[in-house]
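Subject: design request, 149 residues
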């Protein structure tokens, strides 16, 4: 038993964010950071970095890095919709790439968990480089929720 005082709501929220982002080492490798969340949505940012480049002539971020950004934003949105950090697994994730990001652009991934069942979460989202009305990609996914028995 700990003698530490209980955490207030803001401290619990900050610990939740740190556990999510810090629990996935390749997020740090790609430079993906937390930006914000609400009751059923999450937003992560991936600033441009040289190790993400798919085409050195244009400096455009590789689609695999964007896929990771969106999978992570979607998973985060599931956890905030659940209001707890539970193990989840991606069942299906579809990303429709509409265009490449601008050269040296920060890519923003925003996902919303729009439906929860006992075992499945349904998520949709968008990746953009500054204007959500001009997306880089649209995303739809389903996630399995691993609840304790």
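Subject: RE: design request

Done. Sequence follows.
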């Amino acid at each position: 038993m700990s003698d530490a005082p209980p955490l207030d709501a803001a401290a619990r929220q900050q610990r939740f964010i740190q556990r999510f982002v810090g629990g996935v080492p390749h997020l740090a490798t790609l430079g993906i950071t937390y930006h914000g969340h609400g009751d059923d949505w999450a937003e992560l940012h991936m600033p441009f970095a040289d190790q993400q480049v798919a085409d050195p002539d244009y400096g455009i971020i590789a689609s695999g890095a964007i896929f990771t950004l969106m999978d992570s934003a979607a998973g985060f949105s599931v956890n905030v919709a659940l209001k707890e950090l539970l193990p989840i697994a991606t069942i299906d994730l579809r990303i429709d790439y509409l265009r490449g990001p601008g050269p040296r652009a920060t890519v923003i991934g925003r996902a919303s968990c729009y439906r929860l069942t006992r075992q499945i979460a349904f998520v949709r989202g968008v990746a953009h480089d500054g204007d959500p009305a001009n997306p880089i990609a649209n995303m739809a996914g389903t996630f399995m929720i691993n609840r304790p028995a």
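The domain at 9-145 is CATH 3.10.129.10 (Thiol Ester Dehydrase; Chain A).
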